Amino acid sequence: xxxxxxxxxxxxxxxxxxxxxxxxxxxxxxxxxxxxxxxxxxxxxxxxxxxxxxxxxxxxxxxxxxxxxxxxxxxxxxxxxxxxxxxxxxxxxxxxxxxxxxxxxxxxxxxxxxxxxxxxxxxxxxxxxxxxxxxxxxxxxxxxxxxxxxxxxxxxxxxxxxxxxxxxxxxxxxxxxxxxxxxxxxxxxxxxxxxxxxxxxxxxxxxxxxxxxxxxxxxxxxxxxxxxxxxxxxxxxxxxxxxx
Length: 244
Hints:
The protein is α/β, with parallel strands linked by helices. The protein has ten helices and six strands.
């Protein structure tokens, strides 16, 4: 089984010492074309529009700027407008999750990973649970770390990663981080983790910000794949942990 993209210059057998697996949620554990984030973007623009009494178009431009500059729209609103986060988080993550369908192959691959498995997301715990339940992978994760757990300090900032290490006690040199944004892999790489960038399937029409797509050639990106399940199966095969 092979992905349409090369995984990178590094060997998959280098994962043989990894026993802590950290996965981003949105556009990582499920593919970007499911487009849950698009629903959240619409709700964020609506929230900003109503909060600041500006047009939807201006709100979209503003929240995109906050997302790029501060890591999340919420962080930008907190810094620039001193908003209380609870209402924003509840409103934005109240979306239709029905587009996420069970992925038995991904579930089996995650189950076969040796050691501990975590979800670390800039979204909410409730949202992560809903996605994991629909994918059929909930039981295979040891914990979920969300934006509230992180003190509303989002990736790519370093402090929440340090908190993650402190709370789990994991050795970063025995950990791997999976993300859809290259910039969120810089700190994990600097800490000593293996880093895997999950990019959109090129056979599908997927739109996203051009700056989000940058970075796949960056030195802090160890591996690149457009299919997480395929990558995990090939990696498990390479380290001799493939079931059956």
